[in-house]
Amino acid sequence: MLKAAIFGASGYTGLELLRILANHPDAKVVEATSRQYKGTPIPEVFPALRGFYDDLLFSDPEDLGSVKADVAFSAMPHGASQDVVPELLKKNRVIDLSADFRLHDKDTYNAWYGEHKAAHLLSEAVYGLPELYRKDIKGARLVANPGCYPTSAILALAPLAKKGLIKTGSAIIDSKSGVSGAGRGATLATSFVEASSGFKAYKVGSHRHTPEIEQELTIAAGGQLGVRFTPHLIPVSRGILTTAYAELNRTLSNSEMRDIYIEAYSNERFVRLLPDGSFPDISQVRGSNFCDIGLFIDGSRVTVVSAIDNLVKGASGHAVQNMNIMFGLDEKAALFTPPLSI
Amino acid sequence: MLKAAIFGASGYTGLELLRILANHPDAKVVEATSRQYKGTPIPEVFPALRGFYDDLLFSDPEDLGSVKADVAFSAMPHGASQDVVPELLKKNRVIDLSADFRLHDKDTYNAWYGEHKAAHLLSEAVYGLPELYRKDIKGARLVANPGCYPTSAILALAPLAKKGLIKTGSAIIDSKSGVSGAGRGATLATSFVEASSGFKAYKVGSHRHTPEIEQELTIAAGGQLGVRFTPHLIPVSRGILTTAYAELNRTLSNSEMRDIYIEAYSNERFVRLLPDGSFPDISQVRGSNFCDIGLFIDGSRVTVVSAIDNLVKGASGHAVQNMNIMFGLDEKAALFTPPLSI
Amino acid sequence: MLKAAIFGASGYTGLELLRILANHPDAKVVEATSRQYKGTPIPEVFPALRGFYDDLLFSDPEDLGSVKADVAFSAMPHGASQDVVPELLKKNRVIDLSADFRLHDKDTYNAWYGEHKAAHLLSEAVYGLPELYRKDIKGARLVANPGCYPTSAILALAPLAKKGLIKTGSAIIDSKSGVSGAGRGATLATSFVEASSGFKAYKVGSHRHTPEIEQELTIAAGGQLGVRFTPHLIPVSRGILTTAYAELNRTLSNSEMRDIYIEAYSNERFVRLLPDGSFPDISQVRGSNFCDIGLFIDGSRVTVVSAIDNLVKGASGHAVQNMNIMFGLDEKAALFTPPLSI
Amino acid sequence: MLKAAIFGASGYTGLELLRILANHPDAKVVEATSRQYKGTPIPEVFPALRGFYDDLLFSDPEDLGSVKADVAFSAMPHGASQDVVPELLKKNRVIDLSADFRLHDKDTYNAWYGEHKAAHLLSEAVYGLPELYRKDIKGARLVANPGCYPTSAILALAPLAKKGLIKTGSAIIDSKSGVSGAGRGATLATSFVEASSGFKAYKVGSHRHTPEIEQELTIAAGGQLGVRFTPHLIPVSRGILTTAYAELNRTLSNSEMRDIYIEAYSNERFVRLLPDGSFPDISQVRGSNFCDIGLFIDGSRVTVVSAIDNLVKGASGHAVQNMNIMFGLDEKAALFTPPLSI
Lengths: 342, 342, 342, 342
Known about the structure:
Four copies of one chain form a homotetramer. The first copy, chain A, is of the alpha/beta class.
């Protein structure tokens, strides 16, 4: 039985790790830290988990040294994660759910997030997208779990990018996310009253996931792509839908385009390619680790629509998938369950 | 043109006063205070109001002395309102939307809310429910605007109480409120993610609106009634539905019961009695000052269902109705508009 | 591997059976009928199930005779279920999710639902509430799966009823249900636009679940109880919260009341008794088979609040729990998973 | 007092016309037809309107000849509207809310909607967007009220198009609409349970509003633009947010771009240009006739975000604005009210 520790377990990605791992046949959570709730039984903070973690108390993150685990998840915010990851790596293989180790280039990190305090680990960290880097993940000591928006955007366009088909400067990522993406801190903008009848774009042209999407699509394409990215807020708790537009270097028939995606994903259990004329709905992936993808092409102009649950394939499920790969477990363990679509 | 000032105008009842008064033919807002936003143009805080209050800045509540208005609304929280109301009364007639002047009995106030700092005004304040106290409101210097839950509960049961029909100890008020009732402060419990898929009872047996409901139904009945009150949280922004149960002293036919309500409300423009077999839906009063009421009787057991918009008839619309009465304006002015039902 | 057939599998209880059984270690669905969708692969109708039932087509319910299964679930509407259950019983043990076999008294059934066409089975059918009838369920040939509202109401009050503590005529069941309780048929009242900002009482004093609640609480109490039941519609997909009020024959202390519930439920894995002062929220049981219960007493007046997912503990999860009991499987199999609380 | 008749008044645009005109100082509804509800008082169908149209019954659309009105609104579906409009025009000036008279080119209409039965009126009909065609509307006998998506898209991009700045083939209209856009007919896809946790793209590359957007942006630009249009469904009742992308022929500074929009809209009372860095939210225009617009430019790439209430500025409010213009009334009458933002 693999022993897992979760650092910063009282946020939504922490809750989601606890939820998913509660049913893992080969792993169990032995430690969950929370500065705010240390000493409190988990079900007092998360009543949904009553019956599952009744004997586990949130522990103090200061007691880092005493943790005996095989794998450590860091579910702390960016900036805070880089403080603990170097320490954790001394004893554990680490899966970091923050943005701290996703960008390979230190200057890019510094420009978007501020001075990195553990930049020496950037070159070692493996970007944890199994559909692109499964082999690297298997051997990794430190996995940087992808961001939610980037997961949906990269899975949507990487197959075309890898074929060198996307015209530079043409890619537009119009993404829409549920409110849980903003985390568990209480803010006016994410309060029920403000958000429940609203829909808006935010951080137009300036969202921090932009360089992460660019990095990965540029690697896939073998050259700078120059994406435009606009995030929006949907009045649902979970789900990201990305509508990705691009202009190709040449026209493709519908079936040529489909073949490219079949080649990329036919062996992937968590990517579901929808039939012609069908497009994904976030409700159909809710609570699950699936990424559903729908395709449209008109000459050389493509529209690819992808849907994930931002807390599962966009965060904690993705992290468990990476754990399964790193430790040679069944990649689907604890993850291959039907979505709660209604 | 009546000049109105709003103290504590940056919460939801303040926003709602601004919204309603923007279309008042005979009144205009000349001052709106906010400690947090002082100096900021109103539309920067409330973008919906762009085009209506473009030249009005939130002012500092400390500048109380400089206000030149005919009527002052206090939309401050309970406890804070009693600090400013005595001062406001020196120059203005006052409508207080907090709980501070609703209870006639100082000891009851102190027991539920803590020590009152302006208890000498309790006997003067008029409980601002026009359907019961229209005449007193007309001449009042200080109107205590009713609470949202009490408005729905009192309008539901007062007609029966006034006839002395309700058996002591039998009244149960099962109320359900939208999230805006909790105010504009950001909290985890009222965040979108926590509230949007939930429904719960809260403060079972201990909500502060209990003594207010008891006071008014006891006055109506001419003797102690002993209500049980359970509030619940609905995942909508606006609306309160109250399902009120009581056992009567004797059986009534359906039409006898209906006649009692017709007698009570046939001249009331904001109470709409629904036909037999019809029951209210909060969506049908949304954004409006109406209270819809549906009736059911089975022998001596009655079920009365009432619906209001908690921010309008449950707060700011009610307050404007009181202003209209106090100043001899058309009682319906700015208020008689169709609900936004969808 | 137990073979399960689902009749009427294209509604929400059918979808939910498919969802839950997809992860059952000891049972699998071998047949799912749908008149409307016969011949269509399940994932075309329910895209969430893509990857799980890719090779299973909805079959024609007319082909009843050819089914080879160990257990048959009937997820057909009341009235229709009684047409097929007698036939199914010739070859299978049957769990019926409709209302057709829940009432023991034929006249009561006829009065509320119309003439019963298989009334001879009423005396044989076992009411499938494991917390009350586990032993009978184990040996049953026909289990009548409880209604959603009754499950929440009976689990809330049965412990007090069994102690003979509830005063006749005092019980009030104020229940609130998510929209999925109305089924998958498209109606104006359950459309998004009509329901999403609404909350209403409906069928006041006349809902068909009333006799079912009365039957079971009367059996528990050993004498007629006379409940009043008011259902309401919450703008969420899933969940029922029941606020049950009763007057007791005598006063109880808080701990005496708690002990009664501990005695009743301490061995039940799917009933979670909340600590003093805590009350359930439907979000905390969503997607799960749990029933959460919170208690309040003031002298002889009790308020018990219960929460279930109407599609799981209120329907399909309950049915799988019954299947597990009937066939000697682990009662928790496929069911003991954490709720999707956000 | 202007007399208005509404044909097909029992859908959502009909309800919205009734709601808005209830408070019009210079117009009143004298007739409202509905095949389904003929003979029924309006408040029985729309309980929100109780107190406003208590004496008006839905009339039979067959009695077309007897209508005595100054203006007729046709709120019938496309295809049906063209059957009645020629008849209505014999006696009334007509505002048609369907798609039937929006396209100037008969062949385009036929290609997207099927054979037009009153194509001779296409050349006479004025496209009812006051911000572009106010003078023509003033004198029009037949106004084709714009579609909801086109209103948001055209107001977003027309100022740039009119300056000839948009590069051909570069415009992408990514629009998101609330569910009321689908109308009042009950369908599975627009049921609460299916829609409330979902978000999806639909009719990718094939939505019928595409030629309407193209027509108007092409006229504005003075040459074919070639837009790509993707509609999505938001789980809210009301609101459209359009995120429009385009590549310009040359770079513009932020203030140059802003000046173009100020020039276009500074005299428009229903278009609100948001400050730099602010972007619209559909909640801030809900229930109102406003279109809020936010601007972003990076070199030659622009992102323009617009928000309207699809039932008001996207339909019935727009229609009343057109009526006000046609009859020389205050253009703001009945329309200049603050949004119900929460």
